[in-house]
Write a structure and sequence with these properties.
The chain has one domain. Helix content is about 30%, strand content about 30%. It contains three helices and eleven strands; from the N terminus they run αβββββββββαβαβ. The strands form three sheets. Strands 1, 2, 5, 6, 9, 10 and 11 form a seven-stranded antiparallel sheet that branches. A two-stranded antiparallel sheet has the order 3-4. β7 and β8 form a beta hairpin. The relative contact order is 0.17.
């Protein structure tokens, strides 16, 4: 069983190493370690419930934990890191639902795609940083699974990453173009910094393997 003191020590150790990486690579900013806020959706896990043919998501607020954020640079989303203590069950109306995420862990994602609007080198810098920030946790002993839709990880294949982000940018541009074509004449124009970059790094990190195996999934965070 992981104690709160051990979980906090792990987060603070990861923060120290992350701060060194931020300075070394010239990333934009790293925030301080702060308590996990159960009212903050970025700290919540998510449990899905089937209702007939529909699927409904319910937030799973943490009972405690610690978080910090890293913003790699322009165009890249801010990445949240930390460990939260999630309950085994939650109340939904008069019902009790099992969460499936009891114990210490955290799941999140960071979209790096639009960092490519600031150049290829900047995009690669941001994407590599997110991967290496996650690997800090693995080196400290946490169970980490990384799902990289940009195909950079595993293998650190920059060619695949650039090809994937190019395809995603073309898709976004095509959707924007279709919206522009469908707009009424004289209506507002569709404005975007590109019309011609999509990567979703998704991860789950756990402080121990006692409650469930580490797995990556896309969540709304």
């Amino acid at each position: 069983t992981v104690t709160k003191a051990a979980a906090e020590a792990l987060v603070r150790a990861a923060h120290r190493r992350a701060a060194a990486l931020v300075r070394r690579r010239g990333l934009k900013v790293i925030g301080p370690v702060h308590p996990a806020d159960p009212e903050n959706p970025w700290c919540c896990d998510l449990v899905m419930e089937r209702r007939g043919e529909d699927t409904v998501g319910h937030d799973v607020p943490p009972d405690g934990g610690w978080m910090f954020a890293v913003h790699p640079g322009p165009g890249c989303e801010t990445a949240e890191f930390g460990l939260c203590l999630y309950p085994a069950t939650i109340r939904v109306g008069r019902r009790t639902l099992r969460t499936g995420c009891a114990g210490w862990g955290y799941a999140g994602f960071c979209k790096t795609q639009y960092a490519s609007l600031h150049g290829e080198a900047h995009f690669l810098k941001c994407h590599r940083a997110i991967i290496d920030l996650l690997l800090i946790w693995k080196k400290l002993g946490a169970a980490v699974t990384i799902k990289d839709e940009g195909a950079y990880w595993p293998g650190r294949d920059e060619a695949k990453l650039l090809a994937e982000v190019g395809q995603m940018n073309q898709l976004v541009a095509a959707v924007g173009g279709a919206m522009k074509d469908a707009a009424d004449e004289g209506g507002p124009s569709v404005q975007a910094p590109f019309f011609s970059t999509g990567s979703l790094n998704c991860w789950r990190r756990r402080a121990s393997t006692g409650t469930r195996p580490a797995s990556a999934r896309q969540s709304r965070r």
